[in-house]
Description:
alpha/beta, TIM Barrel, Rossmann fold, five-stranded mixed beta sheet
Amino acid sequence: MSPLPFHLVTLTHPEWELALACGRRLGDDALPELRLDLFPEEDPEALVDALKRRCLVTCRRVSEGGRWPDDDEAGRIARLVKALKGKPQWLDLEWDLPIPPEIQAARTHVRLLRSIHVAPGTFDLETRLRHLPEGEAFKWVGWAGRLGDSGRLRAPLAWARDHGVRLAAFLMGPKGLPSRVVQAAWGGAFTYAAPDDGPPAAPGQLPLSTLRAWRSAKLHPGHGICGVIGDPVLHSRGPAYHNPRFQHAFKDLVYLPLPCAEAEEAAEALDALGILGLSITAPLKLTLPRALGLAGPLNTLWRRAPGSPWQGANTDAEAFGQSLSNLAPGPVLLLGEGGVAATSRAVLEAAGRPVLQASRRAPVSPEAVADFAPVGLVQATSLGMAPDDPAPFPELLESALPSACWAVEWIYKEDTAFALWARGAGLQVVEGAALFEAQAEAQSRRFIEGCGGLL
């Protein structure tokens, strides 16, 4: 019988033909998960036959994130039994469910994956590993309420690996993302992925192409975690920038988005996950360094190994200083008041540039801006993160226009309202993407040179 590959890809497509095409395209490292509850009008045996038996068959109940009614258990089992006539390679059966006789009789040609989805806040994996049900592989799924919760799975996953138990244990939700990505490094035998051309089946599930690009299946216990921490970060370009550089340098590091908005929770997660390197973004550039006893604002932290002292840098300041050296001298209007604004002000003042800072809590009048006659404008607010965000303080921008000749946009998404306005006004624009490239390159060097590789 076929072994279970590392990637299981849930076929979540709205139409069966799309799902079938995806399932047939998967390589040897990925097995399609055929969710019978997602295709209730299709014949189960015919679905398995169309995939040429190469699939894991599941029928998920509503209470476990599926679509099959909880009050029709007999119908659900009957549907699974009908799929067995097609002789699938694997069948998913709930952890606590006795094996029905019809399924037991088919075990000459099908392997069982026993799965359990536990309630939020439940961490009973170690207890369950002491009383494994009959089966060839096991899946335990919980929920991540805090970023560091994934760290609670490291010990049981390592135990399962050392005892030859084929186990996957991960947490759903954005804060459970580390448990999905570093599954192999912690001892897990497989993980779940979304199809590249379909939606995720569960919160926090990543596309197959992302897991492949991050080499999730090849991570080993010697790998260390780096990442971008803040909120929001799931959109970050950081993983696409840093992971190829780690791989090119033969450095045993993987770089992940780490969604978290609270400094206390973030500091807890650093030790729980054994994190070695961090890119810090809003709203943590001031608060997280302070929680670790470091002076901020900082956007980069790294350490040799878990428990080693943290080192910090502000590569935002380095990148902004480089750009500033190529811009006309004179007074600068600075918009914003967070960590990026504090970094910008420090760099401007160190360069001897007069600064007028405006924010919602410290407003400035258009008349004051006109009298200040800024040569440069620095957009350091969070406006621009969302596609429909307007430009900040439009009345101040108009007052600055007669004297302004350049503008800096810290948001690195393309065509923010501020960047569009500045280009339309004929100003020299330093794009957020250029600042990102400069500061990320400085971060990557520090991670590669300063971080070890021990999870």
